[in-house]
Amino acid sequence: MSSTVVQPSPAARTKLRPFDAGQVEFADGFWADRARINRERTIPHGLDQLRQTGTLDNLRLAAGATGQYRAAADSVGATLPFLDSDVYKWLEAVGWELGRAADRELAAAADEVIAVVAAAQRPDGYLNSYVQVVGDGVPYQDLSWGHEFYCIAHLIQAAVAWHRALGDDRLLAIAVRAADHIAAEFGPAGRPGVDGHPGIEMALVELTRVTGDQRYLMLATRMLELRGHGLLPGAERFGATYWQDHRSVREATSVAGHAVRQLYLDCGAVDVAVELGDDDLLAAVQRRWHDMIRTRTYLTGGMGSRHRDEAFGDPYELPPDRAYAETCAAIAAVMLAWRLLLATGEPVYADAIERTMFNGVLPGISMAGMRFFYTNPLQRRTHRVHNGNDGRRPWYRCACCPPNLMRLLSSWRQYLATHDDTGVQLHQYASATIHADLAAGPVRMSVRTDYPWHGQVSVHILQTPDQPWALSLRVPGWCRSATITGPDGTEPVVTGFGTVRRHRPWRAGDVVVLTLDLPVRITEPDSRVDAVRGCVAVERGPLVYCIESSGAPPQAEIEELAWDPERQPIVVPRPDIAGSMMGITVPVTYRRQQHSAAAIPYFAWANGRVAGMRVWIPR
Ligand SMILES: [Zn+2]
After folding, report:
1. How far is the CA of 363 from the centre of ligand 1 (A)?
2. Residues with CB under 5 A from ligand 1 (ion)
3. What pLDDT sits at residue 389?
4. Helix, strand, coil share (%) of the chain residues, nearest 5
5. CA atoms within 13 A on the CB side of 144
6. Cα–Cα distance between 207 and 157 in angstroms, integer?
7. What are phi and psi of 543, to 5 degrees?
8. Which H helix or E strand runs over 332?
9. How far is the CA of 105 from the centre of ligand 1 (A)?
10. Structure confidence at residue 391 (pLDDT)
11. 3-class DSSP string for 466-528
12. How far does residue 332's CA lie from ligand 1's centre (Å)?
């Protein structure tokens, strides 16, 4: 049984192949801690919130219970119709977790939730609590805003996780009937329809991968090709770009509109492209991706700068204080970069995953795992904090981000490494064990590292076939100096190529040590990002740093600080915040006097008292 988060079919045109979930396991260290917190605290907290907010009860109402539908109104007064998706995302996370290790309490809770979902589904296969309870029960009347396909997309993703991780097909049976209900009306002979919020495209491709039924892949392809032709009514509110209905997925040269929608759409496009061997479609996504990274991505990997329509702005429109940078957009960016990495094998996508995970995704969740940010600005003004609590919240009215974090963190170990015919590629560094079944034979290795605090990564070969195979290690784009030590001795690594590869016969007991130098980097923005021109940011390794009010000199507000180019930053351990965390003491001036400020990793901000914060510091 293949069991990974994105599982291209054997015939798909990809350069790299993912490992099954059970073949990669965290040992200890940074990511093992985050995965444990997700399992032990965040996921149970999510269940509590789904119960307290009524989101789970809404599905019970669809199943025939009596009571009031609970779904808070959004800013323009419309009741949110898409909250079922939060239940499905939570179930997806639980599926991956139970596949990793049994947990009786979590399994019992999931059984209860699955039973509610099953009971809510109509006999004809249709499933959407909002339409069934609040609406008139007639499906698919409002594809622009109704999110019906979008909700089923998350149901399918949960079903795929349960099938792959556990061989449990209760959700799959529900998802297939729901997908068939959509296919009956919108299939090749049916009416043309696309959802205002993409997501169904990638889900349908995965449904084909799981069931072998090609109809779902064809439906995904049809929905992709229909998009961009002005099919969606209601575009007068934000314009057709809002939901990427302004230009076809093949023709659009830049990302546009609602960031999460664009990124989910492009995930589906890559999935279709690799399954059909459609190189033109893949190239179109790659073009958009490179343009997006160049012109519309924050230093943190965050995307979507505009609050009004949660949208990508113009090129270089990246204000730090007004950044929207929704947590879901960072998650979607990781999902897209992973698909592009599998398709092309190019390490630039693994670089983007690293930057975005540490600095775009992780800030969305507190270090204790039970408070969340929906938006992730790179600056918060001190006066704004004085005007009220502006910190993380236990949940949101529109709660897309928290359960999205849960499902990504529960499957994150699957993103660490890949394999191909010649060997194993390590893309992300974490202490972990990896079991690979290469053509040459079985390989077992143990990775040990204190990344991201220290740059040394040791790979211990525990088991290997006699025939030669290749071990590839990513050399991050930020790295200017590195060495590699192996059975043949120590050599400098030529940086800038993204990978160091050693193809040789290996023996059990061999150790390869990659040492990445981690000096503090003073980063200047592209001069076209006028909002931060004249500022610098502090980075070290894969991490972006920030200064909070509590790290500023006494009496100073962080808005008054300036970078002091005369002195050097110093790396300092910060066990007061977390185990092996490294902070940076940065030289600043305040009222023309030399001072120091304490910078911490951006992902760790707002974990104590709510405070002012900034990433970009004026020179
Ligand atoms: Zn979100």
Report:
1. 13
2. 326, 328, 400-401
3. 60
4. 40, 20, 40
5. 14
6. 8
7. -100, 135
8. helix 327-344
9. 27
10. 85
11. CCCEEEEEECCCCCCCEEEEECCEEEECCCCCCEEEEEECCCCCCEEEEEECCCEEEECCCCC
12. 10
pTM of the model: 0.98
Distance (angstroms) between ligand 1 centre and the Cα of 374 equals 6
Ligand 1 centroid to Cα of residue 400, in Å, is 4
Residue 66: per-residue pLDDT: 95
- 292: burial class by Cβ within 10 Å (0-12, 13-18, 19+)? buried
pLDDT of residue 388: 55
Q: What is the pLDDT of residue 74?
A: 66
User: What is the residue type of 427?
Assistant: H
Give the pair of three-digit tokens for residue 108.
Answer: 């019992």
Average pLDDT for the chain: 96
Q: What pLDDT does 303 receive?
A: 97
Ligand 1 centroid–CA 89 distance in Å is 12
Nearest to 516 by CA among 495, 537, 501: 495
Report how far ligand 1's centroid is from the alpha carbon of 17 (Å). 29
458: part of which helix (H) or strand (E)? strand 456-463
Query: What whole-number distance in Å separates Cα of residue 146 and Cα of residue 128?
Result: 10
288 Cβ neighbours under 8 A, 6+ residues apart: 252, 253, 254, 255, 266
Which residues of the chain fall short of a pLDDT of 70? 1-2, 74-77, 384-390
Per-residue pLDDT at 385: 63
The identity of residue 326, as a single letter, is E
Q: Report the DSSP pairing between strands 469-474 and 423-426.
A: parallel
The answer to whether the beta carbons of residues 295 and 222 sit under 8 Å apart is no
Q: What is the dihedral of CA 149, 204, 43, 575, to 10 degrees?
A: -120
Question: Residue 434 is encoded by which pair of tokens?
Answer: 């990896």
- Give alpha helix (H) positions in 130-169: 148-166
**Ligand 1: distance of its center to the CA of 50 in Å?**
15
Closest CA to 151 of 94, 57, 88: 88
- SS3 state of residue 380: strand
Rg from Cα positions in the chain: 24
B/e letters for 25-57, b = 16+ CB within 10 Å, e = fewer, are: bbeebbbbebbebbbeebbbbbbebbeebbbbb
Q: What is the DSSP string of 382-439?
A: HHHHHTS--S-BS--SS-SHHHHHHHHHHHGGGGSEEE-SSEEEE-S--SEEEEEEET
* Spatial CA neighbour of 360 closest among 306, 316, 393, 323: 323
Angle in degrees, CA 47, 51, 56, rounded to 5? 100
The rounded Å distance from CA 439 to ligand 1 centre is 41
Q: Amino acid identity of 423?
A: G
